[in-house]
Amino acid sequence: MRIAVASGKGGTGKTTVATSLALTAGKSIRFLDCDVEAPNAALFLNPVLENRKEVGILLPVVNESLCTHCGKCAEVCEFHAIAVIGKKILVFPELCHGCGSCTLVCPEKAISERLDVMGVLEGGMTATGVDFTQGVMNIGEPMAVPIIRQLKKWTPANPTAIEIRDAPPGASCPVVETMRGADFILLVTEPTPFGLHDLKQVVAIARELGIPAGVVINRDGIGDNAVEAYCYENELPILMRIPMERRFAEAIACGKTLVEAAPEYRPAFQVLLKNITARAAA
Amino acid sequence: MKQLIILSGKGGTGKTSVTATFAHLAAQSGLTDQVILADADVDAANLELVLQPRLMEQQDFKGGKVAVINQNTCASCGDCQAVCRFDAINYTDGLYVIDPIACDGCAACVYQCPSQSITMCEQMAGKFYFSESRYGPLYHANLFPGQANSGKLVTLVKQRARLQALDENRELVIVDGPPGIGCPVISAVSGTTLALIVTEPTVAGVHDMHRVLQTVQHFGVRALVCINKADIYPAGSDEIETFCRARGIETVGRIPFDLTVTSAMVVGKAVTDFRPQAPSSLAIVAVWEKVIHSLLESKK
After folding, report:
1. Across-strand partners of A162?
2. Whole-number mean pLDDT of chain A?
3. Could you report how far apart the first and last alpha carbons of chain A are, in Å?
4. How much is the pLDDT for B300?
5. Can you tell me the mean pLDDT for A9-36?
6. Chain-centre distance of CA A107, in angstroms?
7. Distance from CA of B232 to the nearest CA of A (A)
8. Is the CATH code 3.40.50.2300 the one for domain A57-117?
9. Above pLDDT 70, what percent of chain A?
10. Is ipTM strictly over 0.90?
């Protein structure tokens, strides 16, 4: 079973919930930190990162001796990443999406491809036996999606394992890529106007993808009741509430997971997982 | 005209609350009618929730195109699926169907289809807005859930804000940035004078502050750092200040953890407007004064 943990708004507690779920879910846990721009789960799970792979997209390389400057490559490129000017051919790596259209249409087979490294995948086990992987995007790179896509495929999926994907904030393409193929989407929010506004955005994605979803209200007790009202109106189950307690914030600040700081929450996370499993199967 | 951007790397450190408070302080100070506001977090746009502006203008934002298969002429050969690198073409119930959410809009399938059954269709990807708020004009947007091209929409929001500032000889554009370090952040940072990084003294906040600092440096923008929720983990706040000092980055204040900020958000006000004497209000006023001083020193 694959669970994607998302939120819309940043800092609502995605990583807090995802890591504590991983530590209480029993054996065979795969953890994917899909927030490749700001990956934080390793700071809490402390895996020994032994495996590493550079990833990115495939950029075209034109063999000038075969090229007849017919311009077919530039014609099919939707992103204007390749141009033919007279007898010169130019590739603009920052515009290229690595789709391979130019390579496929070149009548002279003059285009080959090389990997443009955008980041790395790293993986290893944690002390408690969580099979951990994360993507880390290089500074200055714009595109997170190719890294997330390859992270999901990096290690062979184990059908009996529980896979937990920690999503990036927001509601654009990197979040969609994290959610795609998941069996359940766990939405972590806080009961504030910002939390609610951004929750609605990710609920819309979950609905469009047709994946069942449930809500965890973190920092319960602050803000207002609008998140709760929205969940009832939209038939979104509230699966867990974590109260606002300063001791949680302090423990998480220095790198402790919630269930380490508050072991009394372990049973609640086990119930949460049972609930998710039942809802994903329904 | 100068542009100040508020960033963080990690989400939820308080970018928008600080931006809204700056907007209120600017409107009250000698910068009345000198400031334009821009919300560059287009997929989780929250500044309007505090500013509660009056909408003046809206425009559709067309994103990229997506491929669509004409099932009447499709021969179900599967060539399209074979060339798609975005896993966007699914084979279900004997039909090849394009998942518009996964489609990158590259059109590779269009050129491979032997029966010319695939065309590219433009998509409505979001809305662009111009509003008037009680703290000044606001440019903002809403990227529809799951859409790509957030960088393009951020660029549109910033361009329009900048144009009004230039037309009316206004001194400052304040940009509320998105979290992360990727495409929308890069678009938001472009052309700015100064970045204020709002961090928090948590392992995650510090880790992501390093990444966003490297990103703004990569694009040649000077950065200041302020520490929000500073008293949650005072040792962490000390560490951030030591780290910044060693790298010649100025830290411009500590803001205490204060639920008054949340209460202000609930009633749609900047915290300095809601409770001027709250500990967080006083701290943000001090940060604002340092930021303005630093901006005035900037040449650009």
Report:
1. A29
2. 96
3. 13
4. 56
5. 96
6. 38
7. 5
8. no
9. 100
10. yes
Report the chain B residue with the minimal C-alpha distance to residue A199: B44
Contacts of A145 in chain B (CB under 8 A): 148
Radius of gyration of chain A (CA): 22
Is the CB of B83 less than 8 angstroms away from the CB of A100?
yes
The pLDDT assigned to B150 comes to 87
Q: Which residues in chain A have their CB less than 8 angstroms from residue B202's CB?
A: 252-254
What is the CATH code for A2-46+127-281? 3.40.50.300
Per 3-state DSSP, chain B is made up of helix, strand and coil in percentages (nearest 5) of 40, 25, 35
Q: Give the pair of three-digit tokens for residue B13.
A: 């450190």
Q: What is the pLDDT of residues A214-243, one digit of tens each?
A: 999 999 999 999 999 999 999 999 999 999
The confidence band for A26, taking pLDDT boundaries of 50, 70 and 90, is confident
Token pair, residue B1, equals 């005209």
Residue numbers in chain B where pLDDT is lower than 70: 300
CB B252 within 8 A of CB B287: yes
Closest CB to A171 among B43, B108, B204? B43
Query: Do B214 and B231 touch, CB atoms closer than 8 A?
Result: no
In the numeric block, which tokens belong to residue A185?
A: 């989407």
Residue type, B281: S
- Average confidence (pLDDT) over A99-103: 97
Are B262 and A223 inside 8 Å of each other by CB?
yes
pLDDT of amino acid A180: 94
Domain boundaries, chain A: 2-46+127-281, 57-117
What pLDDT is recorded for position A200?
Answer: 97
What structural domains does chain B harbor?
A: 2-53+134-297 (3.40.50.300), 64-124 (3.30.70.20)
Average pLDDT over residues A106-125: 97
- The yes-or-no verdict on residue A182 having pLDDT over 70 is yes
Rounded to an integer, what distance in angstroms lies between the CA atom of residue A206 and that of residue B285?
Answer: 40
- For chain B, positions 32-71, list CB contacts with chain A under 8 A: 41, 43-46, 49, 64-65
Check if A2-46+127-281 and A57-117 are the same fold: no
**A259's tokens:** 């269930």
Query: Chain A within 8 Å of B218 (Cβ-Cβ)?
Result: yes
Q: Which amino acid is at A224?
A: D
Three state DSSP letters for A5-74: EECCCCCCCHHHHHHHHHHHCCCCEEEEECCCCCCCHHHHHCCCCCEEEEEEEEEEEECCCCCCCCCHHH
